[in-house]
Structures are given as structure tokens and as C-alpha cells.
């Protein structure tokens, strides 16, 4: 059956189709962890422990979502061609998009995430949408992760945060207003069109300054480009697109008090939480991979520079602003290149640097143009079938270590706020209602990207609890313990630098390395 054509996929979405075609990046996982708390006057119950029970529980909320979000019932046509398109499914079969698993404790969630990231959506199967839901029971505390796994083509992280907030709201709505009639699990698609792309909302044509900034990467031969660059780090082994693409995940949680400590430190230092994370990630990477510590008086730091990528949401920058419930990709990257971290490097100087750069990018006309014109540059990529995938594989030759960036921190900020439960029918009029499904914390994870970035930290905060899922390609390191060690150092340095005793001091990289010296 030929499905109805919606529109061709624009650059901001098409890049993710090409990444999957190149076998170097597959999907994203976002969702809350919830706890069932029956109303005091209700008979105590429990949530189902199988797929069938969760299909029954989620049918009404997901039916509402599918009927209000056209992007949930689209597929990609001609995904191997130069001009893929969105096609409309006639309906979505919910029984095929829900699965159930169980783990002993939440720290085992990395295994579930790795399975998801190593299992791409089949873009050639037009009977399945670009998303699925994995319900994960955490047995130790009887909580449940509601993981929304999706092909990045359909939406950015901010859109899926809003979507899964609505999912929890609808779960609570159904718990308080149960229907006596069971709904069918096959949901008809809505008639509305998918939200407009970023390129249709703003002119992305690159200007002279953008061309000059990107000319080296786009036009110089690989050997000359690399000869002109300072030595940088992006993994223990260079990227090789011919190797199997396998994502590994490290997962960590900050307690509520630890999260508040980081937030308070950012406030005290007049910066942002993202800026604090930026400094801690740089310090941790340099400490684990590029430093040798013999004792307090004998520390050697390699001169290798680091390239740091920061995704920036353009939803509030575009005119008119993009609604928070619109599903689409409205994000661009700001890259901080050639970051040098030496023994004397100050933690809070690094934090101030990234904050100033992000402010400049999002509040000045040139900064905003630089972000949107990156999408315009994609118009000049090869136009033949498979051309974009070939271009992405070419970074294994064009870039040092075969990767564009050393590090990436994608921070979605706060989500799933239940301080006031908002009815989804009238979001402009919030009303406080009882909470049956309480959000414990949240989770955000992305698959590894072969030639784009070596280590990607994915951060989200819910219920005053920050979680970080770090992804890397298995082939980048000698073993997964290297990525896990870096994440352990990230947490240690983050909490050390932001501790009340040190937040007012000039915390430098040498201070961060003293812990490694003491370990010896």
C-alpha cells in the first residue's frame, strides 16, 4: 500500500536519516521513572508486571498522544534516496510499540539503554512508527522507567520531554477518571500536518562569515587540514566506520542534595549548571585520558586540545517561537574548539568561558545566524543517493582520530515538574490535582556517534535529581571501564569543585589531580 506523502524531509531532520544510513548513530531515549501511589481512600493496588498489563494501562494515554501529535504516525519514505520524505501511516498499532523488561536496581538501566541504542528503527518497515516505549520495572524500589525510544528524525529532546510530560499527565488523568470502555489498541492517525521544520521558519542561507569559518573543513584536503590544526584528543582509538557500530553507556545519578549543591554553586558563581558541567567534563576527560600522576609533585599533562560541542535549542530564538509541544528538530550545535587544560587551568574560568559563548550565540544577531546557517551549509552536500552518508563517513579521514569533536554535553535542563499538574486539554490554565503516578527522576540517553563525537554526556533533571547517561562507541576505548572511569571522575570533580568549602576558591586542574595522587 502506498502511503500518503506529507512533505520532503528538510536538512535539520534529514541529517539523522543519513546518520542511520551510514550506520553511525541510531536513536534517542527519554523518559521519566515513576512510582505508583494509590489514593489514600482507594484500595491499595500495584502496577502490572507484564506487557499485556502495560498495554492496557497505556492505551488511553497513548491514544490521546497519537491523536494530538501527527509526528507519532509518520514514517520515512525513500530513506536510502537523496530526498527522503515523510509519509502518513493510516494508524498506529500500540501492541507493536510497547515492550516490558525488569531489572534489579536502576543502575542496571545502562543494559536496557545499550540494547535500545544498538537496535535502530527499521526505516524500511512502514507498519511501525519512528518510536517505541520500553517499560522497565526496577524491582528494588518498585518504580518503573517509561522510556520513549525514537529515531531522532522525528523530534528533538525538548519536544520529547514535553511529550512524555503529557504521557504522565494522561496516566494520572485516566487514574482519576477511569473509563468503563476499553479502547482499541489500533489508533487512527490524525488529519493534521506535522509541525513545520526549522528551515521553513527561518532563512538558513549561509553568509560570507559562515563560509569563511567552515571553509577549512569543507574544502581543504585532509592531510593539509590536519597539518594546520593543533593536536587534539578524541578517543584511544581512531574511528573506523567499517567496525561494528556498538554503543556503550555509563549511567550516574546525583542525589537531591548533590543536585542542589551544583545548582547553588552555579548561582553563587553567577553562571549556569551547563557551564559547570562543561568545566567538570573537561577536567575529568583530561584527568583520565591525558594525565600521568606519580605523586603530588610529579604530574604530567599532555598538551592535546579538546573540542567541545554544545547543542543549543532554537525554539525560543525563532520567530515566531516554536511551541513546546511541537515535535521537530529545532537545535543547532555550538562548538568550542582547541580547549587547553593544564595544571594551572581554573575550573571557574572554563565555566565562565562557555557561558559567555552561549550567551553570545543566543542573544546577538550574528550568534543566532551562525547557529541557523549551519543547516544551510547542508544544502551543499552531495546530492546523489547515499551522498550524505558518504560525507559523514569521510570524517574518519578528515578529522584527527576520525571524529569531529572530543566531547559533547547535551543538557535538557528540568523536566516532568509535578508541583502543579497541568491538564493537557487546557495547558494555559494549570490546576493542581492529586498525583497517582509520581515522577521519581528522569533519563535522557543517545546512541554513540561514530565520527561525530567521542564521549557524549546526556543530562536531565527531574524532581531535583540530576541523571547523566554517557555514551561512547565500543571501539573508541580499550574497554568499557575507561568510559566508566571517566564518568566516575566527572562526578567526583563536579561535587568537589562545587562543595560549599571550595566553591569560592580558585579550584584548578592541579587540585582535581590531587585525588589521583592520593589514590596511589
UniProtKB/TrEMBL annotation:
<feature type="region of interest" description="Disordered">
    <location>
        <begin position="179"/>
        <end position="198"/>
    </location>
</feature>
<dbReference type="Pfam" id="PF07247">
    <property type="entry name" value="AATase"/>
</dbReference>
<protein>
    <recommendedName>
        <fullName>Condensation domain-containing protein</fullName>
    </recommendedName>
</protein>
<dbReference type="InterPro" id="IPR052058">
    <property type="entry name" value="Alcohol_O-acetyltransferase"/>
</dbReference>
<dbReference type="InterPro" id="IPR023213">
    <property type="entry name" value="CAT-like_dom_sf"/>
</dbReference>
<dbReference type="InterPro" id="IPR010828">
    <property type="entry name" value="Atf2/Sli1-like"/>
</dbReference>
